[in-house]
């Protein structure tokens, strides 16, 4: 290759870096900052309970905030509490002869609990006292949910590291699956030891939390390795786009999926980081209520990733095994 061609190639690569980095920066800023700038309730499920006439008036008042709330009517305060504990609603307004009571669940989302408290207090007639009851409080070690929200990115990075290292070390088939599963299991135990035992950010069954943390790492790591096995190293970039660039900011764990733009909140719950956040909240504070859907999402990603990892390795080895072997020509003897 001539020096001229080498210089041209180097120039193109330089321009590619100069263009690519601003594009990545813009995409990252959009993914992380745009959803946060559009935080507002969208079909946020809340409950109302009390006399029919009062409840009807409450529903009409809430309907003025078009598209903000999904209102569920309950017979009394006990039914509203049960709905909160089952994670069917984030909170409820209960009207009784003794006054108005707001039921919240800071364990489901401290942001939503604060939003409901401020909204009801601001809308109450002057001089009216509103009693606020936190039905399911956030763990004492993480009253604002900051630790749980901050734990998702390290989980995603741990999963990404497992997939990338497995790929770069050239592990294939069963060895790759074993490496991913083993790393995920250990990461789950370490994560539970830190988040539950040390920081007190989780308050449910220790082993169930460790299982969710491990399954999250496995879902993310196997996705990276699976993409790489199918399409090569560019698959690692695709994994980073889905799991880190989109999965983390779209998870809604720092607020709630219903506070993000609708498409963003929905997509986030179909990606492992968002599903992990919802499953951890359910297991940590709600005795597993509503954990089935998020766990299914994590299991599907893990199964698909491991299958792609195994099949991708087979596809790459089969062509080499089936390639015809040509005999080397026998050199002619000198007469």
Compact summary:
The chain is an alpha/beta fold and 335 residues long.
Uncertain regions: pLDDT < 50 for 5+ in a row? none
From the N-terminal CA to the C-terminal CA, the straight-line distance is 41 Å
- Name the strands of the widest sheet in spatial order: 2-1-3-4-5
**What fraction of the residues are assigned to beta strands by DSSP?**
5-15%
Note the total helix count.
Answer: 11
Task: Estimate the mean pLDDT confidence.
Answer: 89
- How many E-type strands? 5
Multimerization state: single chain
Succession of helices and strands: HEHEHEEHEHHHHHHH
Going by helix content, strand content and strand pairing, the class is alpha/beta
Overall geometry comes to: elongated
Describe the sheet with the most strands.
5 strands, mixed
Q: Percent of residues in helical segments?
A: 55-70%
Cα gyration radius (Å): 26 Å
Describe this structure in words.
The protein is of the alpha/beta class. It is built from eleven helices and five strands; from the N terminus they run αβαβαββαβααααααα. It has helices at 3-37, 52-63, 77-85, 110-123, 146-168, 173-198, 206-231, 234-246, 262-269, 272-285, 292-322; strands at residues 44-49, 69-74, 92-96, 99-104, 130-134. Strands 2-1-3-4-5 form a five-stranded mixed beta sheet, sandwiched between helices. The two termini are 41 Å apart.
